[in-house]
Design a protein that fits this description.
By secondary structure, the chain is an alpha/beta fold. 35% of the residues lie in helices and 11% in strands. It is built from eight helices and six strands; from the N terminus they run H-H-E-H-E-H-H-E-E-H-E-H-E-H. The strands form two sheets. Strands 3-2-5-6 form a four-stranded parallel beta sheet, sandwiched between helices. Strands 1-4 form a two-stranded antiparallel ribbon. Helix 1 runs antiparallel to helix 6. The radius of gyration is 17 Å and the shape is globular.
């Protein structure tokens, strides 16, 4: 993992994390996995897409995921998102259902969330790579040094920001960020949108209308959640 791979807007905030033992371990781990012929998703060039598409100074909303999709062609560097032409995954289907119930936006047929990212929605997974077919395989391999620092950098700003924490994994990650809940931010917690837990409180949580009301209240402009 090198500093040159990190988008310019994020480098000062992530400099310490990039120099950490965790980041060095991550670089060696990824090289060894690739040298062993293992297939890693997303491909090189897409792994920092969340940071590429959403500069630090433009972040309005943070959505935390766990790790990339591990099926062929699914992961492209944004949490919950898949490229055009790829079947919409079940968790994203449920996100679209809640979006429709919350804001009346009809469910779309594709799963590409780049339009959200370009408006300031940081779609950040905890780990930014995964081995093909093995969910969670790159957790605790060093990505957390970078992604924890990214979340902390957003939270440290005096700019009111919305944090959507879906599921215990996202909520535990956010709990590692000092002062997040005492800052000028809106923290929205709900169960994960997966089919296993969406009916336990994700449905009906109305995160999108709450986020837009908060952003407008603070003069930051609402997100157009239509994709």
């Amino acid at each position: 993992m090198t500093n040159t791979a990190v988008p310019e807007s994020w480098r000062p905030a992530l400099e310490t994390a990039l120099a950490s033992q965790g980041a060095r371990t991550l670089g060696g781990f990824l090289k060894a996995e690739e040298a062993a012929g293992k297939v890693i998703y997303p491909p090189r060039g897409n792994r920092l897409a969340a940071l590429d598409l959403t500069p630090l100074d433009s972040v309005k909303v943070v959505v935390l995921g766990q790790d990339p999709y591990h099926g062929p062609g699914q992961a492209h560097g944004l949490a919950f998102s898949v490229p055009q032409g790829v079947k919409v995954p079940p968790s994203l289907v449920n996100i679209y259902k809640e979006l429709e119930a919350d804001l009346g936006i009809p469910r779309t047929t594709h799963g590409n969330l780049e339009s959200w990212a370009r408006q300031g929605v940081l779609l950040l997974n905890n780990a930014l790579t995964v081995e093909a077919g093995l969910a969670g395989s790159h957790q605790m391999k060093g990505w957390e040094a970078l992604t924890d620092a990214a979340v902390a950098a957003v939270a440290a700003r005096d700019v009111p920001t919305v944090f959507m924490l879906w599921g215990s994994h996202a909520q535990k990650k956010a709990a590692r960020v000092p002062g997040l809940e005492s800052g000028p931010h809106l923290v929205l917690k709900a169960p994960h949108p997966s089919p296993l837990s969406a009916h336990s409180g994700f449905f009906g949580s109305r995160p999108f209308s709450q986020a837009n009301a908060f952003l407008e209240q603070h003069g930051r402009g609402a997100i157009d959640w239509q994709v």
